[in-house]
What does this fold into?
Amino acid sequence: MNSPIKIFKVTVQLEKDECGVEVSHWRLLVETSRYYEIKPESGPVKRIYKEKLNTVMDDTKSYTDGYLACSAFCIEDRIDDMHTEMLHTLQLKIKAYMDELHLNQQALELQFKSPKRRPK
It folds into this structure.
């Protein structure tokens, strides 16, 4: 008989110059052909669809105070892979923010060089 799948939630959080990783085991309650119902030690039951297992999810609603986070539900053998994938995802997100800020900086510099007057 197969033993039930063990599902873990891996979360990576960046807050200014601190990087934290949290791995927590979620107890499997129900498995269907489409999803798992899982529960942490304390907290509500969550339904995770099988196609979303081992998929990085962006947990950052809006970028404030240097905080970025992402997480993934995965099986035990994939914890290290998911951690690496999340670091890569956060790195790409930071690069995109830096590129956007660079464009904003260029637009401001153009305004200082040749300010446009507001219409009266």
User: Anything to note?
Assistant: The beta strands are 7-15, 18-31, 35-39, 46-49, 57-58, 67-75. The chain has a mean pLDDT of 92. The longest helix spans residues 79-113. The CA atoms of residues 25 and 74 lie 10 Å apart.
